[in-house]
Amino acid sequence: MKLNIEQSKLAEILETAYLAISPKPTDPILGNILLIANEDGIVSATGTNLNLTIHTTTTANVETSGQVALPAKLLTDTINNVRGEITLEVENQACIITHNSGKCRLIGGKPDEFPTLPKGENPIEVNLSAKKLQAALEGTLYCTNSDETKLVLTGVNFKIDTNKWQAASTNGHKLALVTGILDSEYSDPIDFTVPGKSLSELNKILSQSADTSVCNILLSNKTIEFSLPNTKVISRLLEGEYPKINSLIPRTFEYEFTLERKGFESALKRVSYLAERKQKVVKILWELEATQATLYTEATDIGDAVDSVLMKPATSHSENISIGLNIDYLLEGLKHIGTDEIVVRCNKPTQPVIICPMGGLLNQLYLVMPVEIKQGFEKVNNQSTKTEVSTQPEPNTEELTDIAQATNDSENSEMELPSLVAKDTTKGKSTSRSSRSKKEVATA
């Protein structure tokens, strides 16, 4: 094999293929990138860890066709540190790389031992805008579960029904859902779950694709192929039934508030410094007449913080509502919403809170469970001040309740998505701030 190629072209396909290489490959050959040069001037680079395979191509001046498997990291680092036109010449398993200021020789593995690209039988074809697929991954990947004992929850679940499609993820405490419309219709419902690790690498490739690119998806029984111009990403599917996401989302809401996203995010960050490190709980009082949301946090023996942001209520209720939420979960959800305004929808203080963008490329929602706070706000001299806020540590699994009990629409759900409702552990204990009274808040 012998070819001449621009450094930038070779570096690009190597970096893409390298995304599929495991840092600790189970077989030495899996630590290599397979380079293949064809007489028609097409050069391909392939990397795999057996669960994920990335195959990408470019053009070059190929004098002699052939193939070689070279150490992925060593090859990528070498090409990234040279400039100009490069000549690759392979003899047996050795590759001589000649550049404008010198040359080097790399010893690789046997290319015939490199795994072949997996092929599915009778695949279902789906075409989707690359930018819409990227938006769906951005809006769901952050809610996948990192605990591999619940393997199916480590992925993103996709459903297609006629011409409607959705992507959903959950880790048991929070949930993300993105929906859209396809150009084609499918007679039978389609349901599959793709590993989050595979989709994270796909997302990096999608971020570099053109706005007009279309992703051709080929779905088989055990594998899925995402085909983009010059690049294919092939992943194994996760087995097992994914929880019934849609039955966990309330269909109606008593309260709705519109806020400026960056202002709300900034207020959360300001009060987060005075929140307890373990709980990271913020109490939000939605004041309807004042059209503002007041945020309150407290850290024992350190201090407390109060902040507020303007909001637009849309509700028939006249009573204010206060809800306790995990600050980190809130900030994480806001980070993955790209619009200037958001809509917060809720019912009772113990039921799911939904956050949606105003507009956007796709329909998107983020569900987070509240934290029950026994103490609340008092109005003293027309200023929002605290009485005593009882923020409890995040409970163990035994102390959690099923989210199905928090919404009337999920009675038949098979999913165990626990809420963050903690037991009150302050009974019988005295507070270090005896000068302040402790008052029980009647939740709305």
UniProtKB/TrEMBL annotation:
CDD domains associated with the record: beta_clamp
What GO molecular function terms would the record report?
DNA-directed DNA polymerase activity
- Write out the biased-composition intervals (Polar residues): 383-395
The DNA polymerase III beta sliding clamp central domain covers 128-244
* EC category: transferase
Which stretches does the entry tag as region Disordered? 383-444
The places in or outside the cell where this protein is found are: Cytoplasm
Please state every residue range assigned to the domain named DNA polymerase III beta sliding clamp C-terminal: 247-358
Quote the InterPro entries the UniProt record gives: DNA_clamp_sf (IPR046938), DNA_polIII_beta (IPR001001), DNA_polIII_beta_C (IPR022635), DNA_polIII_beta_cen (IPR022637), DNA_polIII_beta_N (IPR022634)
Q: Does the keyword Transferase apply?
A: yes
Q: Cite the DNA polymerase III beta sliding clamp N-terminal domain residue spans from the record.
A: 1-118
What EC number(s) would the UniProt record show?
2.7.7.7
Q: Which UniProt keywords apply?
A: Cytoplasm, DNA replication, DNA-binding, DNA-directed DNA polymerase, Nucleotidyltransferase, Transferase
Question: What NCBIfam families does the entry give?
Answer: dnan
Identify its protein family: Belongs to the beta sliding clamp family.
Q: What is this protein called?
A: DNA polymerase III subunit beta
Q: Give the classification, highest ranks.
A: Bacteria, Bacillati, Cyanobacteriota, Cyanophyceae, Nostocales
